[in-house]
Amino acid sequence: MEIPFAESWKIKMVEPIRKSTREEREQWIKEAHYNVFQLKSEQVYIDLITDSGTNAMSDRQWAAMMMGDESYAGARSFFRLKDTIKQLTGFDYVIPTHQGRAAENVLFSYLVKEGDIVPGNSHFDTTKGHIEGRKATALDCTVDEAKDTQLEVPFKGNVDPAKLEKALAEHANKIPFIIVTITNNTAGGQPVSMQNLREVRAIADKYNKPVVFDSARFAENAYFIKTREEGYKDKTIKEIVKEMFSLADGMTMSAKKDAVVNMGGFIATRRQDWYDGAKGYCVQFEGYLTYGGMNGRDMEALATGLDENTEFDNLETRIKQVEYLAKRLDEFGIPYQRPAGGHAIFVDADKVLTNVPKEEFPAQTLTIELYLEAGIRGCEIGYILADRDPVTRENRFNGLDLLRLAIPRRVYTNNHMDVIAVALKNVYDRRNEINHGVRIKWEAPLMRHFTVQLERI
Ligand SMILES: *Cc1c(COP(=O)(O)O)cnc(C)c1O
């Protein structure tokens, strides 16, 4: 008999979590204005709101924290981080920031001007926010396949080269750079192939434009290249990572994802002009150039996490857990963005709650129903998150409406995955009785999903 797959780690420390009753949850979600971001974490049993900063660090990461150098300037921990990043990516210049959006803020303060257009695959919400906040346009050039959740293609996160080329041909003088998000979070944690990264590079070179990778899940992307793309099976993750970044001029990084820490981020680049242009904004917004919003110990944990999570075993354990949940949902016929992505399952709410009109936000409604069912907190990645069009102020209903179940790294067991799958099945079984969703009572002008207040219809 074949030996089954199991985790490449064992558990050394645990944190108790608490179940609740349906009555309690009814009360709590009402008090939270039907916005799961406003729930207290004690009101949640299994927390899938994000895989960002919710990871369990390893014993080596905790040990590294004791070695943090807390010097204001020139900390040893910064140079260790810089060396690790240089080894992995080939980038010489590193600006540390407290998280990913801070890296965007610092770099875009230098690169993005009013009226600019920044094309790429689907922009992450904070990336879009930092572009639109500067009165520039985030132009989504993702492949059309990404919009069909039931289509099984290996690299659904890809940039459509024809759309990108068109954008450059029409607006070259307004485009400061191209941004590729790896993996493509908004399209369902879908990977981008090496072939596609090469095509983007070739188009960029033709128009003499630089390329930035929004790299939060670059290691998961490398895992998919290794396991799905021809020619990479025998390469190590670190070799693939090096090759990926050889195709970019620079990167922004939320270390809260693939560096398996709870807080941190950075910019890295091969371009001295970007470093010199952006570093003043780091000092202004984040802190001095050798800590940029992080403690010395944070930089140690980050460096160790980057090294560990670019090893195959660690990534395989993670991706297989996401696949496990996907297989359970397949048993129940629940539709999600196929194939399963790197860090999450994205349930296709439009296909589940077919009676709820899009104006009543089906994915948000499903998020609420799953919480009520079993205290599981997912997250809407759909029409609320899409914000309003900055010009017309209309809701944007042209994208996907998904319930994201993000799986924190090394936190939950497959027993938890079973609870999630069955709770969702129970909601799915009574989907035809759910005819109404929610309406917006109050919303912020940008990134409204974090603070929106809703009421049930
Ligand atoms: C999380 C994330 C960001 C923003 O990073 P924070 O650390 O949350 O500020 C940017 N881009 C992508 C693709 C992300 O997943």
Give your account of this protein's structure.
There is one protein chain. The chain is α/β, with parallel strands linked by helices and 457 residues long. The chain folds into 2 domains: 22-51 and 312-456, Alpha-Beta Complex (Aspartate Aminotransferase, domain 1), CATH 3.90.1150.10; 59-308, Aspartate Aminotransferase, domain 2 (3-Layer(aba) Sandwich). It has 15 helices and 14 strands. The protein has helices spanning 22-31, 59-65, 76-89, 100-111, 125-132, 161-171, 194-206, 218-228, 237-245, 272-285, 296-308, 312-332, 349-352, 362-374, 414-429, and strands at residues 46-47, 93-97, 117-120, 137-140, 178-181, 211-214, 250-254, 265-269, 344-348, 376-377, 379-381, 402-406, 438-442, 453-456. A 5-stranded mixed beta sheet has the order 2-8-7-6-5, sandwiched between helices. Strands 9-12-11 form a 3-stranded antiparallel beta sheet. A two-stranded parallel sheet has the order 1-10. Strand 3 (117-120), helix 5 and strand 4 (137-140) form a beta-alpha-beta unit. Helix 3 (76-89) runs parallel beside helix 11 (296-308), helix 12 (312-332) runs parallel beside helix 15 and helix 14 (362-374) packs across helix 15 (414-429). The longest helix has 21 residues, at 312-332. The N and C termini lie far apart (54 Å). The structure holds pyridoxal-5'-phosphate. The site of pyridoxal-5'-phosphate has 15 residues, from helix 4 and helix 5. Pyridoxal-5'-phosphate binds next to helix 4 and helix 5.
